[in-house]
Amino acid sequence: MRRHPNSLALLALLAAACLAQGAYALLPAYPATILMLCLINASLATSLNLVNGLAGQFSLGHAGFMAIGAYVAASITTPGVDLLGLAGGALAQGALAQQALFALALLAAGLAAGLAGYLVGLPSLRLRGDYLAIVTLGFGEIIRVLILNIPAVGGPRGLSGVPAYSTAFAAALFLGALVLGISRLVGTSHGRALLAVRADEVAAAALGSSPTRFKVAAFTASAAAGGVAGGLLAHAMMYINPSSFTFMRSVEVVVMVVLGGAGSISGGILAAVLLTILPEALRPLQQLTGVDLRMVLYSFLLIALMLARPQGLLGRRELWQLKGRP
């Protein structure tokens, strides 16, 4: 009896998520935290790759969508913990109710960030190049300043007491779903339309495509995925504040995409893992020298990588496409 490819992909996705959760449970606290950050950063890079890679645009506002997702999700689960406690009973106190609340919070985070992405993308994606980058940069800063001045979500103090609901299973499952969804999208007519827009918007419009419509759809989906990743981050760190979502956070995610290769899903994941682990691996250097040379060496390594591979680690190819090719 033949198995459907989608069933095999789902089984592989669940197996990978279970493997990630097993590794997370066996590792000490510090390496386990790094593993969680690798999974979340890989999700962020993959989601931004949909816009900066496949659609050929340049967005600098991903931290704003992360912030929306993180604060929306935390605002649901933080008071929800008290509500579950008041409800009483084995079900309300158990992991099932907590995970249901967490799933609802992540869904709300994705919807809120996706709506924000649609509202920003609809007017701004008629622009190109540097103009789009400036608009999205401004949006990210507006979100950060708004959060900074809303006492209900902690203002500059941040939001503490966020329940530790994020698991490696959930983070790996979300990352796998993103990779599977985007890789399947590339082979569809919508995916080919996005690639045509990336190559030449004028030619794509002449062939009957609507570049703005496809770019807005990609931007909205990317924003929604960034919001879910922000929700996972909030429930992994158990504390969020506006300084976690500055312009530099957006730049970090863009660097992951560019270093891995704009348009390469697996390249973005490799770069996200590398850029998450490398600063921590260099931390003993500071202890040996007594001088904080960690970030200096980190920057030099990034420059060396970009000089050696200006097209990124994988260019526009995927890991499974490298065999037999130069």
Describe this structure in a few short sentences.
It contains 14 helices and two strands, in the order ααααααβααααβαααα. With 326 residues, the protein is mainly alpha-helical.
Structure description:
- It is a single chain.
- The chain has 326 residues and is mainly α.
- The chain has one domain (5-318).
- It is 75% helix and 1% strand.
- It is built from 14 helices and 2 strands; from the N terminus they run ααααααβααααβαααα.
- It has a two-stranded antiparallel sheet with strand order 1-2.
- The longest helix has 30 residues, at 95-124.
- The two termini are 38 Å apart.
- Mean pLDDT is 83; it is low at 86-92.
List the helices and strands and how they pair.
Elements: H1 5-26, H2 29-54, H3 62-87, H4 89-93, H5 95-124, H6 130-148, E1 159-160, H7 168-186, H8 189-199, H9 201-206, H10 211-237, E2 239-240, H11 247-260, H12 265-281, H13 283-289, H14 294-308
Antiparallel strand pairs: 1-2
Helix pairs in contact: 1-2, 1-7, 2-7, 2-10, 2-11, 2-12, 3-5, 3-6, 3-10, 5-10, 8-10, 11-12
Q: What is the strand arrangement across the widest sheet?
A: 1-2
Q: How much of the residues is beta strand, in percent?
A: under 5%
Radius of gyration, CA atoms, in whole angstroms? 20 Å
- The chain-level mean pLDDT equals 83
Number of structural units classed as domains: 1
Contiguous runs where pLDDT drops below 50 for at least 5 residues: 86-92
Characterize the main sheet. Answer: 2 strands, antiparallel
The best one-word shape is globular
Helix content: over 70%
Q: How do the SSEs run, as a string of H and E? A: HHHHHHEHHHHEHHHH
Q: Counting H and I runs of at least 4 residues, what is the number of helices? A: 14
Q: State the separation between the terminal residues, measured CA to CA.
A: 38 Å
**Structural classification:** mainly alpha
Q: Tally of extended strands? A: 2
